Fold these 2 entries.
Entry 1:
Amino acid sequence: MKFFSDNAAAVHPRLWQAMHAADAPDAGYDGDALSARMDDAFSDLFGTQCAALWVATGTAANCLALAAMVPPHGGVVCHREAHIEMDEGGAPGFYTHGAKLMLADGEGAKLTPEAIAALIDPIRNDVHQVQPHAISITQATEYGRVYTPEEVARIGSLAQGRGLGLHMDGARFANAVAHLGCHPAEVTAQAGVDVLTFGCVKNGGMNAEALVFFDMELADVVRYRRKRAGHLQSKGRYLAAQVLAMIENDLWLENAHAANAAAREIAGACGDRLFHPVEANELFVVLSPAEQDALRAQGFDFYDWTAPAGAPGAARFVTAWNSDPAHVSALARAIAAL
Amino acid sequence: MKFFSDNAAAVHPRLWQAMHAADAPDAGYDGDALSARMDDAFSDLFGTQCAALWVATGTAANCLALAAMVPPHGGVVCHREAHIEMDEGGAPGFYTHGAKLMLADGEGAKLTPEAIAALIDPIRNDVHQVQPHAISITQATEYGRVYTPEEVARIGSLAQGRGLGLHMDGARFANAVAHLGCHPAEVTAQAGVDVLTFGCVKNGGMNAEALVFFDMELADVVRYRRKRAGHLQSKGRYLAAQVLAMIENDLWLENAHAANAAAREIAGACGDRLFHPVEANELFVVLSPAEQDALRAQGFDFYDWTAPAGAPGAARFVTAWNSDPAHVSALARAIAAL
Amino acid sequence: MKFFSDNAAAVHPRLWQAMHAADAPDAGYDGDALSARMDDAFSDLFGTQCAALWVATGTAANCLALAAMVPPHGGVVCHREAHIEMDEGGAPGFYTHGAKLMLADGEGAKLTPEAIAALIDPIRNDVHQVQPHAISITQATEYGRVYTPEEVARIGSLAQGRGLGLHMDGARFANAVAHLGCHPAEVTAQAGVDVLTFGCVKNGGMNAEALVFFDMELADVVRYRRKRAGHLQSKGRYLAAQVLAMIENDLWLENAHAANAAAREIAGACGDRLFHPVEANELFVVLSPAEQDALRAQGFDFYDWTAPAGAPGAARFVTAWNSDPAHVSALARAIAAL
Amino acid sequence: MKFFSDNAAAVHPRLWQAMHAADAPDAGYDGDALSARMDDAFSDLFGTQCAALWVATGTAANCLALAAMVPPHGGVVCHREAHIEMDEGGAPGFYTHGAKLMLADGEGAKLTPEAIAALIDPIRNDVHQVQPHAISITQATEYGRVYTPEEVARIGSLAQGRGLGLHMDGARFANAVAHLGCHPAEVTAQAGVDVLTFGCVKNGGMNAEALVFFDMELADVVRYRRKRAGHLQSKGRYLAAQVLAMIENDLWLENAHAANAAAREIAGACGDRLFHPVEANELFVVLSPAEQDALRAQGFDFYDWTAPAGAPGAARFVTAWNSDPAHVSALARAIAAL
């Protein structure tokens, strides 16, 4: 009963079906009919003109976006615990040619305009200090926390006022939108986001994310950079197929609702053990080592996590689009019984 | 009846089957059982200890290999028409952080020790000139030409003598080995090759190539660099599944034999029109514009190509693992009838 | 009466003399007799075999050193307020091709083994997190604080134990050694330092620092990287002349003693206003805005500085090799009279 | 009697004088009065508004210029024998973050619009091939050849038509203008040049070149990049002093006329031995090994050179602003007497 992560779950049957359908011969790279449909499909989804490119991983998608917004001598503001800072093996430094990640603080790995301003206001406007050129936020965050449309809009407003680009790492964008129940444009295009990494892999995809450009000029540069990074697959139609299947008929929301619901069910059993509100599909739970052992002895797999100060230990549980309801209920019961 | 390229053909059924089997939950990234089998599987295939990593594209695989062998201030010798020079959108410059491609000449896009020496011998051994650190050759070449084991060994010997690494871009390695009928180690490990890009995508794969390291220390660096390039997929098991299915039961050779045979059948009809010997699955054919039109009118798709001096025009035809025998025969007949 | 910085002071007469003497024709780049003497001159100074290269600026020297020790996918541990992090315009990212600065804390901008371990111990040894490859410390620090030989040796020991390189940014190395009264090797070669940026510019030089390699293999790479960075001047003999004049007859120490003594004289008047002990030639002084105005009205120039919590304001004063004794005494009196 | 190169000659007395005058205290970096005068001084010289920055070396100046005009995924057209390709240790790859040098041919290391078009016209406008973003030409060329205003203007016109930037490497710009007898703007601003590396070091400077931006927006980026490359010297006033002394009272032309006249005197003795016309201060002379020995036995120093096909050997002689007239005449006589 695995609750390690959503990033290794099985591929959704409708994506398998779409990939098989893509087996028919078509042009290489992104010259095929499926890739050609992406711009329109995402423009429909967001209700605004945008450009969309498939990319195999979130790391590549995030970093291609940043590199399009930030010159090598510039910087990107992000949270100290952002995935781009903590878990991408230095990919931002590679893709941006050495631009700097500028680390701000904030509860639940969420940035606020105040925290951003506190970081960048003291930077002297001279050549000795790296100047910020963009902000990157994660929706939902690394702690499963969700920005409201208003919260994003406030950051978007600050970005616009300072001439900074705004990137959203949406590896779990679907979970965030499912939680908010809003239109996806409300937390992106309408809130000042220039580029969105629209995650599919954690939500039932195999190996395709989408980069969605509301600032469409950025897409032109990224087309070159994607190839230069070895991310322009010659059989790109299999990636386009995944992405299109994900957004057609709202499969992305359906899967996210399922994962979120599973997380909520477990959360209901956790009570005060939760040290982050459960808004998406991740649970951060205070558990003593003995309690962890007990759960593992019952067959539950999950990661140890850094406990809040004073707590005896902690663990992270992540649900997925296909979390087995029986496993989920079993876990909830097991935690309740601790 | 498409003869554009082998790089957009359908995925082989046995790879589909292997990918579906990989749907069962397993650890993320390359922590799964399939990824773990790759070293052994390739060591068996080559009859020598090696390390193997999956990578989604040949461009990324080639450039990760080069970056592991060449410091940013160094250079890589390659053919003037090599894929890394002509068709990878500057990826070598990106991955190597600005190292230089040093261009040598040679018939059929093949390098020779003599051509390499002619290029690098005049380089002064001082800091003003970029020093070569590696050689990259393509097997089969961009013109479908194949290096014999002896030819590779002569280059390997030069590389070793000069302290240079040796990389082989084997996007069509299977076609080359199928043509040679030799053991794959004879043109690689035994001939001094340090790293091989073992191509699968052009040979029936979806989006997985293998980087095979005979110099196993290089693999350790590439593990970090692969992640840093956003090429460590979280569901890597679907890539490992493709690669393993390709080499198990010699599917790679079976597919390559099919493609090569199709090319040979067409070649038989081309006579003096061929301006490169057909050793793999590519045909370079003198065709006047009128003749091209005639073939296209019969439903054959192919790329225009640069004609040899004096020729009225030319075209490139590429066969694939699944080229329809009826289409192949039809093309042969159509060319013969011109 | 300028106390802005030591980095814009006049050039010492003996350096002018040495540069004029270098006007005689000689070979270009570093092929001249003066450049050739540098290795021996520094080996004599440090009492151990080392290699020494001239470089025009401290920023370039620091970053060339780091790039020689750290691969693009690695990281460098430094203090959160280190010059390489705060004031080099992103040069480390440029020279290292995107390696990461990993920021540790410590009083007075000094690192400790404990602070370094607290930063790097939690880093998982996997490809998702950037791994440290070197440590960089500043002697004297950005707050004019000096590491004792024992303190450096403890860091050197940790570095060796972890397989990390150790770089010392010695922009004010002379001031530190003058303060310590030790042999320069005691805080460098004997304490585990691999490369030292030996500062001259802040100590009476015009535009030459020396990179001193106790790990001599690093120098071989840096010779190429220096050229590649456009820092191999064709009339390098004028830089060698500066550096050699600086270390011959202990001019470097003489100049540093003068600057340190001036700082001490002012410090004597500051009492509790000092919020960092004065060990080199920098003073960090609590001064209210009104007091700052009063000093400026008397003709003293200096930078505003960030005050400690609760203080009404602060300023930084820096003395130089040629600080006018009358100005120094006047400043001391003026502060005492506040 | 050294005729190796002009790049290691003594510093002109008026530059020494100007540097000494700069010893007076002033602000650091480029905040001093001399640095502040550079824009106006060059705007006066060229009779058009421009921005000018000092940089210590031609390599850094050239590469900062290119990096401002070319994105990392782009390319720069230059001559196959250009200094940036042959003798800068890979600096263009470093500064541009891996952009590509695209090599064109041309007699005497001169580019023509036809040669440039022949190179770039076949480039497919797709992401697989690196797209040109700028052209770099050298005035005078590596063979001492000079572009006329009309020749530059034709290249400038092509650049403008294709949307490419135009950089001029003017390491020996003074020698070229002295030869042409034209206004310096005629071969630069008026001919479509966006950025000029205005060489001083080979013309009597110590370690300062000027980057002159006719496209002034480029200068804003380069201010950041110069710092990031460790080329913003803290005592920049000594570099500004050199550059200003060079252009005031036409010292740059005076020095170049002297060097050119010396070269012409020697050229007069060379007759058919010359394999490049002598337009600036370099001579390329057919000399058999025995003749070279004979000259060296008489005390003349010079570099061997690659001889034209069929010639028994060759040498390069370079004159400088301070070539001793007696040595020059002696060399001319010695060659005539061979």
Entry 2:
Amino acid sequence: MPKPETTPMPELLEPGAAPDLARAVEAEWGRALADLVRLVRQPSVAAQGLGVEACAELTAELFRASGADAVEVWRLPGASPVVYAEFAGEGERTLLFYNHYDVQPPEPLELWSSPPWEAEIREGRIVGRGVSDDKAPLVARIAALRVLGSLGPLPCRVKFLVEGEEEIGSVHFHDYVRAHRERLAADACIWEFGGVDQDGHPELTLGLKGLAYVELSAQGANRDQHSSVGAIVPNPAWRLVWALAALKGPDGRVRIPGFYDDVKPPTQEELRAVYAVPWNPERMRKNLGIEAFTVADDDEARLALLFQPTCTICGFESGYRGPGPKTVLPATARAKVDMRLVPDQDPEDVFRKLRRFLDESGFADVQAELLSGERAYRTPPSHPFVKLVARTAEAAYGRSARIHVTSAGSGPMYPVGHELGVPMVSTGCGYFDSRAHAPDENIRLADFAQGIYHMAMLVREFGRADA
Amino acid sequence: MPKPETTPMPELLEPGAAPDLARAVEAEWGRALADLVRLVRQPSVAAQGLGVEACAELTAELFRASGADAVEVWRLPGASPVVYAEFAGEGERTLLFYNHYDVQPPEPLELWSSPPWEAEIREGRIVGRGVSDDKAPLVARIAALRVLGSLGPLPCRVKFLVEGEEEIGSVHFHDYVRAHRERLAADACIWEFGGVDQDGHPELTLGLKGLAYVELSAQGANRDQHSSVGAIVPNPAWRLVWALAALKGPDGRVRIPGFYDDVKPPTQEELRAVYAVPWNPERMRKNLGIEAFTVADDDEARLALLFQPTCTICGFESGYRGPGPKTVLPATARAKVDMRLVPDQDPEDVFRKLRRFLDESGFADVQAELLSGERAYRTPPSHPFVKLVARTAEAAYGRSARIHVTSAGSGPMYPVGHELGVPMVSTGCGYFDSRAHAPDENIRLADFAQGIYHMAMLVREFGRADA
């Protein structure tokens, strides 16, 4: 396998946009790639309690070795630590980077073509769990500061907020942000993810949906029964099916009273921004292997994907699930349901409404537990910071940035936006086939180099700009 | 562990009812118990293809060693063999015994207190997979013929029909019976199962429900998706939930049009027979750990259990089922549904109606497969053969027989009743805690001895009677 130290850097797309930075990135390359390999080789699966402490320590060490003026490891009881770092700079302004050092579980292992913790370099890519989500963006940002540092003092103050529970719903993140509100004060924030789309344009994302993740369960007899008693013995599988069918019908509308009360419709500028980006629904259907979306009109489907809350069965199980027939009446049944929320829905409020609805619909016996909750957040497309990042991305990549007013996915933008009141734009080192959360997660070496270059350019422009 | 040869026979309950038989049973005891241990030690799990051929051979060998005049192993392609045996007798009449040599899978193994294939004898019991269902009844019947043979010629012709697929829905049983219709001709049939209830009364069962066991499945995208696309990508878990909820609602009524068309209400004599047997719904609820049945009125519940068809979810699965949250939109969902049928419902007809209902209710995308089908059958309580068996049971056990017009469970009585036109009564060697299909399946030695005694008495009386 090629070693990081001897792996040549792919050519940058627009070295002429900032020739001094381009040369400095080239000089930094070997170290940046070695740091990335080292970080990926440190497992950090919050869901499995695997390597979390060690990875927080390694992250802190990378900051220290890169000349940070302050590096702290924050702790809360029962929580993954948060790594905080600060780099002094000349200007008045402060840029905050949000990242996470935790990653998804690597399973199913048999579907990887090289071991997930190996960070194997091949065919112009690095393959490993967490390389795209979110270790390469983090290492690229630290490398970008070293790039700028090699040319002179930083043009602004830079802070890093690196959490360790993003992949399990950022359980303690809001507490951390609240507790360190003053310390984290900044003028703008660069979020963790992004990359280059199928047409080669850099993608910027301004918002995330929220989440209310609920487990529903029902209990019948004290153990599985012979199904011959099905005429009279309560069946938790039926109870759960009926409760689920009450939540949402084939029309896709969630039937929990008040569920849509706090849904804010998209603004005119958000709609304009949506329509400024091409969308290919036919390609999406083909990739998914489906005939049709659940929303018939493609334009409506696109808006629903971004601006409508969802109610999705993520899984369920009960009774016998093996091959062939087994005549059993199950004792228990469970289902996982996630609801993607939009501004201004509140997961606690949605959960209370769900509980009340179950009670009032005759399903008081169905247990419900809120496993994870997050609020949605969106930065307006017209914000000057959005324009600045779009400009630097275009300069660095040589193609216009495509601005997504929100992802359909969820993440903890809300605590940062709510507590710190900063605009947020997400950009990263991935591409359309990075396979985040899936086997063979990878990034292209070229995108990693380009990400360092873009981040260096962005910090410099941010220090100069009024935005 | 005590050896079968040196395990003393428990005292019979009513040795005075037939002192010559009682003495002969005592003489047979060691051999009968040794045969039973040997048969249980031969695994024979049709569902797992484990030991089926070997167990058929061993069964045939037991018949040969017991003086059968004809022993045959019948075969059909892809089917477990059927073992047929015939014992000549003096009278004109022929009694048929139906048994099966196959047993349920032993899993979960960790819940057994002694290995399932060990047939351990302890505390007056024999513990092993299949000992109650249905190896002890089979061995007791063969032993009973040796008991009678030790006293003179058999008073009637006796035939044995021993199948090897009862626990997987008797897939080929009807074909076997049809193919050997003439050979199997008889005047009456003793079915495979039964025992002594909690009050010490021998139980006789005259009927079995039928079965239509269906697997439903739905398919969404070509692989599991990130659940953020839940607003527009079809979710097979939802499709299945809605299809299931369409089949049956919380009122318990099956909504498939025509489902109840062929349901025959119980006759007056069946109802009289039901009410002649005590029923303790409170004890049943307590055993199950439930507050209430799904049918509020206890009398209605009792009749529903016996005379109403069911629609039971035996299991379902889709997507993520591990601990905590995982935001996935599943690619597939499956459910197992069993419908217990009553006379004169036909599983093929019920399945066609189900398919049509799904198609007409907007669920043409939900796949359905009939895994197993059986028709119900009941012998009228007033049949003279029922009265004969009730009389011999009462004589052998010293307590009145309790007659169940039907079990709530299913089994292949229909092919025998339909093809051979014989009355059927089921009786066996079990008791209320025999744990058929469950870990620690067992019988009491006393019930085994009593079963041999009763079977010998029954064959003798059958040979004598006009019934």
